[in-house]
Write a structure and sequence with these properties.
Elements (H helix, E strand, L loop, with lengths): L1 E5 L3 H11 L4 E5 L2 H13 L6 E4 L8 H14 L9 E6 L4 H10 L4 E4 L4 H10 L9
Parallel strand pairs: 1-2, 1-3, 3-4, 4-5
């Protein structure tokens, strides 16, 4: 599995990387602009990400805008809707409007509130069919 971790907070990035590194090859972006660039490169190289863990509140470009651009890139590159990258929005915001916007406007696959626990993250990966029971 290929994963892109997008978060402006070093601690959060490190924790997610520690949780995922045994089950995924992980790239890291510190803001939305880096995330969109990395995502575009993965499509151009025909090595798309299986998973994006995306913070919503970041400098330069926030997670909502990055998610819209990621979905637009998938459309531009002809990604079939059933093959879209799974995007887990991970944020400290426990806000119904942000949740609504991420799912219904941005196309997020799921949503977890920080601090993320490893068991919950792995359970979410299993529910998204990105991880088998034996891998976790």
């Amino acid at each position: 599995m290929r994963a892109l971790i997008v978060d402006d907070d070093f601690y959060s990035r490190s924790m997610l990387h520690d949780m995922l590194r045994t089950v995924a090859y992980c790239d890291i972006a510190v803001n939305g602009e880096e995330a969109v660039y990395a995502f575009k490169q993965s499509l151009e190289n025909q090595t798309p990400y299986d998973l994006v863990c995306l913070d919503l509140v970041m400098p330069e470009m926030d997670g909502q805008q990055a998610l819209r651009e990621i979905r637009a890139l998938e459309t531009e590159y002809g990604t079939h809707p059933t093959q879209e990258t799974k995007v887990i929005v991970i944020t400290m915001l426990d806000d119904k409007k942000e949740t609504h916007d991420a799912f219904f406007l941005g196309g997020a696959t799921s949503y977890l509130v920080k601090p993320v626990e490893q068991d919950k993250l792995l359970a979410e990966l299993r529910s998204l069919k990105l991880l088998d029971e034996v891998e976790s």
